[in-house]
């Protein structure tokens, strides 16, 4: 009966010590200075040809008010990117000192557009290797079955 009480007391002391030490450490975000953009979901899975919207937050920490120009670089050919602020298209955002601004990035791929040769090879390669492997497997099975048959003259 003593062991569970001792374990519970030890865990309570450990939790109290951790919360007390966490209260004395400065917030790492308060030591940042500058402008940055963050998103709660930096990695998303979408289907081919599906439009996607990313919620972005522009942060200003320790700097005077800033006008931040927004643009999407290195998009594939014929894809469209649009920044939305308050539901309307925007090309910049104004961020107050120690403030944030929420922006949405909408990326729309062109459906039916030709893809580069390298991308088409990546799409076809698994099917091609599967067909070759299946052909070899069926040929081997039929050859072994043929060799096991008795040949009569």
Q: End-to-end distance, in Å?
A: 88 Å
**What is the helical fraction, as a range of percent?**
25-40%
How many distinct folded domains?
A: 2
Shape: elongated
Low-pLDDT stretches: 1-23
Structural class: alpha+beta
Question: How many individual β-strands?
Answer: 7
Strand content: 25-35%
Strand arrangement within the widest β-sheet reads 1-2-7-4-5
Tally of helical segments: 2
Radius of gyration, Cα only, in angstroms?
30 Å
Mean pLDDT: 80
Order of helices and strands: HEEEEEEEH
Largest sheet: 5 strands, antiparallel
Spell out the blueprint of helices and strands.
Elements: H1 2-24, E1 34-38, E2 52-61, E3 66-69, E4 80-85, E5 88-89, E6 92-95, E7 100-108, H2 117-148
Antiparallel strand pairs: 1-2, 2-7, 3-6, 4-5, 4-7
Concise synopsis of the structure shown:
The protein has 153 residues and is of the alpha+beta class.
